[in-house]
Prior knowledge:
The chain has helices at about 25-40, 50-65, 70-75, 85-90, 100-110, 140-155, 165-170, 185-190, 265-275, 290-300, 320-330, 350-355, 355-365, 375-385, 390-400, 425-440, 465-475; strands at about 160, 180-185, 195, 200, 205-215, 215-225, 230, 245, 255-260, 280, 305, 330-335, 370, 405, 410, 415-420, 440-445, 445-450, 455-460, 485-490. It is α+β, with helices and mostly antiparallel strands. Strand 9, helix 9 and strand 10 (about 280) form a beta-alpha-beta unit. The longest helix has 18 residues, at about 140-155. The protein is globular, with a radius of gyration of 31 Å. The two termini are about 60 Å apart.
Amino acid sequence: MNPQKSPLGAAGNQNNFRPHTTAKTQHDQKSSLEEIKSALSALTPNVDRDEWVRIGMALKAGLGDEGFQVFDSWSSNGASYNPADTRDVWRSIKPDGGITIKTLFRMARNVGWRGAGNEAERLRPITGARPGKAALPQGDADRHRQAAEMARLILDGADPAADDNPYLVRKSVSSTQTLQEISLSELKRIIGYSPRGKSGPLQGNRILVVPIKADGVLASIEMIDGEGRKSSLAGGRKAGGYWATQVLPEGDLPGLVFAVGEGVATVLSAAQAVPGAIGVATFSNGNLLAVAKNMRRHDPEARIVLLADLDKTTGEPDRLATEAARAIGARLAVPDFGPDRPDGANDFNDLARLHGSEAVKECISKARKVEADPGPSQQAANQEKAPATFSMSDLMAQHFDPVSWTVRDLLPQGVFILAGKPKVGKSWLALHLGLSVAYGQNALGSLWAERGDALYVSMEDHQRRLQNRVSHTTGCRSFPAGHDGASLRSGLDIG
């Protein structure tokens, strides 16, 4: 890095810059270049890489290949400046990538820039391209990048959503820190077209703006008008995309609950009914599993509840929600409308509006894990009733209580005995399993414990008298093996 180098290039080189323009006078070209440099000087090159690339894209859109010297000279004042990297990034930028020089001016205004020569609001489209009309790049990565950039522009022009936003009022929910709103006219100006939903163009003056993230970074925007018409940005990444009712906390947070559902209003209703829960919207039922897995990776200790919509035809819990809950060991919550469910009532927002937040909270508190389905061959075997024969599974079901698991296929509810040679880790494993039960956390590999109460007792041979006393007063049995032994008894009431 050369600290004496001007971020706008040496004075002797400025005549080499020729703005990438259509028919313009020499006076207009110089004025535009001066304005670009003025805006650029308001920005620090010590920004994150995404912002740095956006600035390069804006410069290339406005100045063409001749803008490299401006970009390189400005970048050289950054702490992580690398000449080769700067050159490679510049070469990879496409001039028609959907970003215009207006991006640079908007970013500069956001940090207080007021324009060169009192021309802050004179944002000439230097490339001559109409805003919002740039052709979409061909590759998926380019389309995703363009949609993410457009989403940033929309958020730049939006304001925090108020509780009286028409859509939020219609759904009887309150706003959160991660929701914004924008006027329809401003939205059209930024994206260059009139957004449409399935039932027609978005209408009204206050459009709810829902930022969609994928892998923790902004990927797209969902736009919702007061009547519930929804539209998302073309080219935006959808797989794994989500919106959360609050910024996801970093690190493990004891007792954290993710309430994962399809719609914005659904997860708002859940989060506002269950204090401390974070609602996570997936925007489609096909996206439930991917997003739930992302939440599990974000915080392995968190409890994940899948909010199932009811199938509009059968009234049963949505199949994809059930499968997602089974796949990751999450709990499934189902809205209970009672025997007189109104037509069209099928999600937790409908339940909140009909019966209040307490009904939502009660259904979520009753969420349970989904047992694995028996395979087709097992189902056929269970149904087959040959003369003078019976299946062992039928016999077990009739004469023995089914096994209830604290950790499925590992730790049954009741008495679990660890036996082995001394000093091989029996006590450590018993303590680990006890803590897993107490906190409802990962017990072993992909196996998760149901949260509940656990009592741990460990004793040596010379403590037999204490053993008998504990056994008599607590009902917890311990079976020493060798010189030490451990027994874990758990009786769980999952609420």
